[in-house]
Design goal:
- This protein is α/β, with parallel strands linked by helices.
- About 35% of the residues lie in helices and about 15% in strands.
Length: about 550
């Protein structure tokens, strides 16, 4: 008997665009058939996009998704692909009140997170996800009804178990029953958002489940970005002993093909894409996140203040890699305090990435405001930032660019940004990257250019002086960030303990941090919550991202003794 060929189609989808998502299923199913596949598996909620959140609660949306599903089944058969088994994720529905008596009224219908087998022009099997995550970025328990059936399908005479994402993260449930069904393979449909280091967790978990069911596990994951979430793909097949048999690259659409040999044979190996180094992985996640947000919101270009500093330089490089340097508008907005080297660095950066570079001095506008308002100190500094925000929003309104806010996670943590000034924008690409990592990513991107990672003969995009000079907002003479903040290497270490690891004051002091530094940093973080809640969304790459995973009360009175 020939060995079934399994294809894992990690594709990019758009929430709510069921017609485009259905067309993608047809296109990739055709590619899988050309590769000789007997089964092609798509990610979780492929037809609807993920996460659909409260769209699932609209009966009209569920009807539209179901109609698209039926059209897809018919189109596959009409295209000569009727024999191909196609597993696709979508939204289903079920009655939440079981009917015990014939003729009894059916209970209210709730949406489900569903995997569907399409073959021979029809829906053959439906499976509803059992375990509905209700932590971090997930809100599925509120939205969906849970399934309770085990799903095993036949593929070329072999038994293949089917589950969805969280079903393998929780002990028990459908996976624990698979060995009773003597499956030769377990396939998992996933829309698992990216977090740094999460790939290793997925592999370790899948290895445990493979050992549990005594069969390989094929794990297909969504790729692309939706709002602030990034999906990194990285689909893989793993053996019962934990050996990775095949793996797709991260952050790109890809069809991973693997042959399911006989149960008594040594498992086949396929192409195994090498894992990315940590800085490259995070950088590519940022590029994917920005590209997805720009394109899925209908923009073609971005605009931001190109100051010559490290944050705007990294954002510029990310933007150029995401949508092309020709679609990046960088605006230098010098004040009377702007240094010549900052203006030179900004111009050099724009030339390196091929951006549309413009210079708009702000002194006349600042003078006009100060002629009407007697401002000094912090109010005068913030005025400069707010004038710059007005300029960027004016260009956005007149030319249709998406404004990017270049602030980093360290600045957001301590409130080191001007509300309605440098915090203005529709998206913040590096809001989940601390300052120390900003420098590391800039170094990585420049080295990648020298190594030809992004193409031959590329110049490092970020001027060296933007990386090495002391960071400054340049809102008063001789200003540097360390005038009002601890050194970044210390600040980021304290913030990592307090924000990422939820350590309190006593634990920080036990680590040996200066009490004055600890008290200052914790007070700054707690007081800045009102600013963070008004900051634009940005790509999430850590387990605890501001705005998504960590929020303080806006007024915080409690302090740990």
């Amino acid at each position: 008997m020939p060995s079934p060929r399994i294809a894992l189609a990690q594709i990019d989808t758009r929430v709510g665009d069921v017609d485009a998502n259905a067309q993608a299923v047809l296109d990739w199913a055709r590619t899988a058939a050309q590769a000789g596949a007997d089964l092609v598996v798509f990610p979780e909620m492929t037809l609807t996009g993920y996460p659909i959140e409260d769209l699932a609660l609209r009966a009209s949306f569920r009807r539209g998704a179901e109609a698209a599903l039926q059209r897809t089944a018919a189109a596959l058969a009409a295209d000569g692909l009727g024999d191909l088994a196609v597993l696709v994720g979508t939204v289903g529905e079920k009655s939440v009140t079981p009917v015990h008596e014939p003729g009894a009224p059916e209970g209210p219908r709730r949406p489900t997170n569903q995997a569907v087998l399409l073959q021979h022009g029809q829906v053959q099997v439906r499976y509803d996800k059992h375990h509905l995550p209700n932590y971090g970025v997930f809100d599925e328990y509120r939205i969906f009804a849970a399934g309770d059936d085990v799903c095993v399908i036949d593929v070329a005479g072999r038994r293949v178990g089917v589950v969805i994402c969280e079903d393998i993260w929780q002990d028990g449930g459908p996976v624990s029953q698979m060995d009773e069904n003597e499956v030769s393979l377990l396939v998992v449909l996933n829309a698992s958002p990216y977090e740094e280091g999460k790939g290793y967790q997925r592999v370790e978990l899948a290895a445990r489940r493979a050992h549990e069911v005594e069969a390989p596990v094929a794990y297909v994951n969504l790729v692309g970005a939706q709002d602030d979430l990034v999906f990194d793909g990285g689909s893989f097949v793993i053996a019962t002993d934990g050996t990775v048999l095949a793996r797709a690259p991260q952050f790109v659409e890809h069809l991973l093909v693997w042959d399911l040999l006989g149960d008594d044979d040594a498992p086949a190996t396929g192409v195994v894409a090498p894992p990315l180094a940590p800085d490259e992985e995070v950088y590519r996640a940022l590029v994917t996140g920005l590209r997805g947000y720009v394109t899925k919101n209908g923009f073609r270009s971005v605009v931001f203040g190109m100051s010559g500093g490290i944050d705007s330089a990294l954002v510029a490089a990310i933007a150029a890699d995401a949508i092309g340097g020709e679609n990046v508008v960088g605006v230098s907005m010098p004040s009377v305090y702007s240094s010549e080297h900052s203006k030179d660095d900004a111009a050099d950066l724009a030339k390196r990435i091929g951006a549309d570079y413009r210079v708009q001095p702000i002194a006349p506008m600042v003078d006009a405001f100060e002629g009407e308002l007697a401002l000094d100190g912090l109010a005068a500094e913030n005025l400069q930032a707010r004038v710059r925000g007005v300029i960027l929003m004016a260009l956005s309104n007149s030319e249709g660019h998406l404004v990017l806010a270049p602030g980093n996670k360290t600045e957001l943590a301590v409130g080191y940004s001007t509300i309605y000034g440098d915090a203005v924008g529709g998206f913040a690409p590096i809001k989940d990257i601390d300052k120390s990592r900003v420098w590391a990513l800039a170094r990585w991107r420049n080295n990648a250019a020298l190594d030809g990672v992004f193409g031959p003969d590329e110049l490092p995009p970020i001027p060296e002086s933007s990386i090495t000079k002391p960071p400054s907002a340049e809102l008063r003479p001789g200003q540097v960030d360390q005038d009002s903040l601890p050194p970044y290497e210390i600040l980021d270490e304290v913030l990592d303990a307090y924000v990422e690891n939820a350590e309190g004051r006593a634990e920080l002091l036990a680590r040996g941090f200066d009490p004055a530094v600890v008290d200052k940093v914790l007070a700054l973080v707690d007081r800045a919550e009102w600013k963070r809640r008004q900051y634009p969304p940005g790509t999430k790459v850590t387990a605890l991202a501001f705005g998504r995973d960590r929020r303080l009360p806006i007024t915080t009175q409690w302090r740990e003794p």
